[in-house]
Amino acid sequence: MMRDIDINILKSSEIGKLILPMVWHYLPTDEFKLKNTLWEKYASVFPNIWIASAFKGATEMTQLITPTRYHLSNQQAWLKMLNLFGKMFNKVLGIAITGWQRFDHYTVLCELFPVALPTLAVCLLTIINGDFNENVHKTASNLLGFEKLLEIDTFPRPQPVGPPPLFPGGNIHNSCLQLGNCITEYHILMHHPSIEGAFSSYQIMHNRVNTLHIDQFLPRARILLMNIEAINVQLEGELNKIFYPTTVEEFLAVNINPFLEKLRKLVKDADLQIIFHSAPEEMQLNSN
């Protein structure tokens, strides 16, 4: 990283005659941390530069849904920075709007490209226009075939999900939004007091369960399981149209299968406890 190298070392090396630096930064406006002194240093060494922002990835290793507002803010921060310091260089040669697929070669997939395509459209049009506004929002939405304006604030979830946009991969985009809703609902469900406090593995193992508590969560668990199973079928079919089989396998294994397995076990355990506690008392005693 050249950011921390002394300016005299950079000058004496004459590296400015050999390379074109790309200055990258992926944080939103309120977290943008490139110091003024950095631009002064680079301008004294490099006549021309590239810069790099991000339209996906660069937030969470396991990110499923692209946080559009976050990446839009990153573009806006860069535009502001260029207005302040761009004239210090002979030329800013361009901006690379990067889109990570993994944080490194050993981490899981983050947002798939069809999920992030609306964010890319918003970021590109913001850079071209010089800022984000209502016209940029409408143009991006129309170009990608959204029935209404595309979501800028994709979090928190759950949120209503409209019809699939018309761009290739639009069904994947929508299914991932629905999956994001379900995952949020799953975490809410698993923190339900009747699960955390009345349906622990210890209580299940010893058949010490009050079925009134099961009534508090089982209907929601069944619906959630049904919804994720439906998304699983739809996503597997749509993903196989675009991605390699290994990519499809990994995506489902990381983002869907763990939730299906835990929900199926939860529903099965609940059903077995209902059967056990509805049996005659002498049968319950024999089971214990």
UniProtKB/TrEMBL annotation:
A GO MF label: hexosaminidase activity
Coiled coil: none
SUPFAM superfamilies, per database record: (Trans)glycosidases
Organism domain of life: Eukaryota
UniProt-recorded name of the protein: Hexosaminidase D
Organism: Caerostris darwini
Gene3D superfamilies associated with the record: Glycosidases
